[in-house]
Each structure stands twice: as structure tokens, then as C-alpha cells.
Specification:
This protein has 10 helices and 20 strands. It has 383 residues and is of the alpha/beta class. It has 2 domains: 99 residues, Urease, subunit C, domain 1 (Roll); 281 residues, Metal-dependent hydrolases (TIM Barrel), CATH 3.20.20.140. The strands form 5 sheets. It has a 6-stranded mixed sheet with strand order 3-2-7-18-19-20, with helices on one face. A 4-stranded mixed sheet has the order 5-4-1-6, with no helix packed on it. It comes from candidate division WOR-3 bacterium.
């Protein structure tokens, strides 16, 4: 007999522009089969009466398993400091899926994370979107690039380019021009193959976007300018000063990862960091999702970021979207994840209260219809 799970009752925040009450979510074969009124015969019942139900949370910018927790430098696998242009590197090859960050994510209702190389290099490599059980959803999820302080700091110390913002922009353009030349040569030589340019070719083919680390407004503008020169899709990662150019981002239709918004201003690029950026994005119509940049801040900071942004004027509806469906849309995975809808993956969380309230507990986390976390008291959070 096929296994059927029925989640009964509760308030369901579908993230499909409606809130349902006292319904039954029927799960079969890892998918949401139906949102119904009655419980099917022989179904395993999860009683969620009086509880809150949400889609699994999505963090669109992390380094989970690339910077492992609690083991120091041995676990630092996110940056290849030997070359500023490394699009051929793959985050997937550096991830330790036994890192405790994955368990902590599940315990906090996060079911999908996008994992990317760091920002030491102007072009750092290929990201990968995964379920926090380890299932690969999208590989590559984009090419990680970086502007601003980080590449300058790393390579200035080596007395190599880039040591300025101009140098970073030049190396980015140079790599893209070389890729265009490679594509033309490959049309004439079918045996031509270069891992570096094959990775960047995907940008020109529209297979995935450039995911560009840019905190300051001038770096955001440089990123957009370069991508428009080459007709490449882009996502702005962090977008700390995005509130200064929100009209432009909206006009161009550039999506943004926002955060982490609850760090201190540890470097110049963060001087104008404010949780109010989220409200401005909402007002201007910028598609955005919160990020923890884990392990820069703990992964449970995802919903905390949304709740803090509420205090600065973000609407509750947008706060929820920015940790669920918006991230799915920016990743191009919204047909599978990010909302509670018939036919989508059964990635669902049940809580004992409003998820935007810090005291709320995650009671159950489901991924593909399987319970991957169940709250059994404070000790269950210690892992």
C-alpha cells in the first residue's frame, strides 16, 4: 500500500496569496497531492490543529558545508585564493554534507539552501542549490562573481590584480570577452573544450545567471553595467546599499539577495547597512529574498532577519515571501518549492506560532514528504 500522509487542521500560509484554515494537506510520493477537506482512508495523520503551517524556508545565499563549523581552517573550502578567475570550480566538490549546518537548517525549518563559493575571487565558481537532506536541485545554480573589498584585499596582499575596483571590473570583462571568443572558435572546432570557458558559456546561453557579490551602490551599478554589456542575467548578492538604487533595480528587473542584515558593520562596505532596505525594496517592487550568508550568521537568522525587517516597515506578507517563494523564484525553482500547492514538493514546516515571532518553535520539518526534524524538547535543538 502506498504511503499517504495527511496534515490535519491548522492555519496554512500557502504563499500562493491565500491563507487556509482547517484544511487537510495530503502528501503522496513526496509531493503535495491535494489540499482537501477530508482525510483519506489509511492515511498517517499529523494533527496540526491550533498550529501554523508554512512551506519550507529557502536561503538563497549560503556557504553551508563549504565553511564547516567548529573545526577551524581545516573546514575552509569556500575560496581558492590562488587565481582571481575560477569559474570552473564547483561548490559541490567542496561541500561536506555531514556538516552540522545541514542539521541546524532542518531544525529551523530551512529545507533548501543555495551554496556558493566565497567572494575572494572576481569569478569564484559555480553554485549549487540543494535540499538540506543533500538532494541536488540545481547544479550549477549560477556563477559566483564578486566586486568590492574582498577581491581587492586578497590579491593586493599578493601584489596581483585586482588591487582596485577598476581591476576587478577589468578581469570580469576580460573573462567574458575571452568566453565570447571561445564560443566562436568552438563553432569551427567541435573538439575544443576548456572547463573555464564552458562554465562561463552557460551565462551566454541563459542557462543560469551571474550571482554577483556587491554591497555598495557603486559596485551594484558596475555589476549591472557589465552584465548589460554582455546581455547576461544577473542576481545581486547581499545588495547592502540597494536602497540607494532601488528604483534602478526595479526598472531593470534585477533580483537581489538581501543580507545578512543583522551583522555588525565590520567593514566599510557595510557602513549604510539597514533593515529598512527590505521595506524600500517592497515599495519599489524589487524582487528580493533574505539571506544569512551562513555561516557568517547562524542559519536560524533567516526568519529572524524577516522579523527584524518587520520592525522597520516591511509588511508581514512580504516578510514571509522573502524567506520562501521569493527565494524559489530567484533560483528558478518556484515550480517545485517555495509554496504549498498541489503538485509541488512536500517541503513543509509546522510551528506552534507565528514563524516571525522569535519565541516560535519549529515542531516538524518535512522534506519530500518525510519528517526530517521533530521537536522533542530543547535537547532536540542541540544536535
Amino acid at each position: 500500500m502506498e504511503r499517504v500522509i495527511a496534515i490535519k487542521g491548522g492555519t496554512v500560509y500557502t504563499m500562493e496569496d491565500k491563507v487556509l484554515k482547517d484544511k487537510v494537506i495530503i502528501i503522496k510520493d513526496g509531493k503535495i497531492k491535494e489540499i482537501a477537506n477530508n482525510i483519506p482512508e489509511n492515511a498517517e495523520v499529523i494533527d496540526a490543529r491550533g498550529k501554523f503551517i508554512y512551506p519550507g524556508l529557502v536561503d538563497i545565499h549560503t556557504h553551508t558545508g563549504l565553511w564547516e563549523e567548529g573545526i577551524g581552517r581545516e573546514g575552509y573550502d569556500g575560496n581558492e585564493y590562488t587565481d582571481p578567475v575560477t569559474p570552473h570550480l564547483r561548490a559541490l566538490d567542496g561541500i561536506n554534507f555531514l556538516d552540522r549546518g545541514f542539521e541546524e537548517a532542518k531544525a529551523n525549518g530551512i529545507t533548501t539552501v543555495n551554496i556558493m563559493p566565497g567572494s575572494a575571487n572576481v569569478i569564484g565558481g559555480q553554485g549549487v542549490a540543494v535540499k538540506t537532506t543533500g538532494e541536488i536541485l540545481l547544479n550549477p545554480s549560477g556563477i559566483k562573481m564578486a566586486l568590492g573589498e574582498n577581491p581587492r584585499r586578497v590579491y593586493r596582499a599578493q601584489k596581483r590584480m585586482p588591487s582596485t575596483r577598476m581591476g576587478s571590473a577589468f578581469l570580469m570583462r576580460k573573462a567574458l570577452i575571452e568566453t565570447q571568443n571561445y564560443i566562436k572558435k568552438k563553432e569551427k572546432d567541435k573538439y575544443l573544450f576548456d572547463l573555464k570557458y564552458e562554465a562561463l558559456s552557460g551565462l551566454f546561453e541563459g542557462k543560469y545567471p551571474a550571482r554577483i557579490h556587491a554591497h555598495r551602490q557603486d559596485d551594484i551599478m558596475t555589476a549591472i553595467r557589465i552584465m548589460e554589456e554582455f546581455n547576461i542575467k544577473a542576481v545581486i548578492e547581499h545588495s547592502t546599499e540597494g536602497h540607494f538604487v532601488a528604483d534602478f533595480l526595479s526598472k531593470k528587473g534585477i533580483p537581489c539577495a538581501l543580507g545578512p542584515i543583522i551583522t555588525t558593520r565590520v567593514k566599510q562596505e557595510l557602513k549604510f547597512r539597514t533593515p529598512e532596505t527590505a521595506k524600500i525594496y517592497e515599495e519599489k517592487g524589487v524582487l528580493f529574498a533574505f539571506t544569512t550568508d551562513y555561516p557568517v550568521i547562524p542559519i536560524y537568522g533567516l526568519q529572524l532577519s524577516a522579523s527584524i525587517a518587520l520592525q522597520y516597515g516591511l509588511s508581514e506578507e512580504m516578510a514571509l515571501k522573502a524567506i520562501t517563494i521569493n527565494g524559489a523564484k530567484i533560483l528558478g525553482l518556484d515550480k517545485r518549492i517555495g509554496s504549498i500547492k498541489e503538485g509541488k514538493d512536500a517541503d513543509i514546516i509546522i510551528t506552534d506560532g507565528d514563524i516571525l515571532e522569535p519565541v516560535t518553535k519549529i515542531l516538524y520539518t518535512f522534506i519530500n514528504g518525510e519528517i526530517v526534524y521533530e521537536y522533542k524538547g530543547p535537547e532536540s535543538l542541540l544536535m
